[in-house]
Amino acid sequence: xxxxxxxLKDYLRSHGQRVDDALERFLxxxxxxxxxxxxxxxxxxxxxxxxxxxLLVLAAAEAVAAHAALQQxxxxxxxxxxxxxxxxxxxxxxxxIHTYSLIHDDLPAMxxxxxxxxxxxxxxxxxxxxxxxxxxxxxxxxxxLLAREPADGRPAVLLRRMRTIFEIATAAGALGMVGGQAIDxxxxxxxxxxxxxxxxxxxxxxxxxxxxTGALIRASAVSGAIMAGGTEAAVEAIAEYAVHLGLAxxxxxxxxxxxxxxxxxxxxAGKDAAAGKPTYPALVGLEHSRQLAQQAFDDGLxxxxxxxxxxxxxxxxxxWVVTRKK
Length: 326
Ligand code: GRG
Hints:
This protein has 15 helices and 2 strands. The chain has helices spanning 8-26, 35-45, 52-71, 80-105, 122-126, 128-148, 155-172, 177-194, 202-227, 232-259, 262-265, 271-274, 280-284, 286-307, 312-323, and strands at residues 115-116, 119-120. The chain binds geranylgeranyl diphosphate. The site of geranylgeranyl diphosphate (GRG) has 16 residues, from helix 4, helix 8, helix 9 and helix 10.
């Protein structure tokens, strides 16, 4: 695939476009899908997200395929087209799940936000009921997609699909994102009742983020690695890389909440601080937060080095995560 030679910005644009095209194809549409829920799902899904998680799925799949190619005779190597065919459904499913989580997070019963991805939030435009249904629709459609695509009946591919479904379901559910969101919700309610929760130290903060945002980021990279047929050692190394990447992503998100501008972020800046939420800058200050993000970046790359996965795009993506402005 010539994409390996592209500058990162072009790689992100071309891969992002292919993800968008595939989402168009995979998303249920009228007349089979009722127009109101179809419109609501599309409003949020095509609102201009960064597509970070699907790009991570694809980059991890490419890195693992390149790693495997070094260890196998050339006629056994997986082709770039195969990497796409195998990993694209997981990339799209994860973006659907991520979008559902943002829709539900913005609801009045949770974060009660009115701006997301640079637009009024879904419930503001389509109403709360339809926003709940659009989130539910995206979440369940994601698993329907994972169960049917890639339509490849080979036992090895079926097994990879089952593993991928397990990884993504675990990351999205009560042991992952839902659990993390529950911790966050409790902390916000406690903060409102009695000021900032004094027991919310670094360990609790890390646990909340590892589940709330880290788990789906980890599952993104792991899904790509599994679907591309990575060895156990490669999948484990990719998982370790992604845990560090997820941490860096969250720390930077917290920093941007303090330093970023609402117009750049496409969501309300300064909300966490205003709500007295536990964040990295609140706990350790901005400078130390930046150091922790850099440390996570370095640790992530070391995990890849240990098993000889060429960092390539995964290195660039980690760099993008720690330097991003939105
Ligand atoms: C409702 C079960 C449930 C979970 C919600 C992800 C989440 C849990 C809440 C979002 C709150 C938040 C802003 C967390 C910080 C990290 C994060 C997920 C940022 C948004 O992800 P980006 O920056 O967004 O990848 P885009 O719009 O670019 O896709």
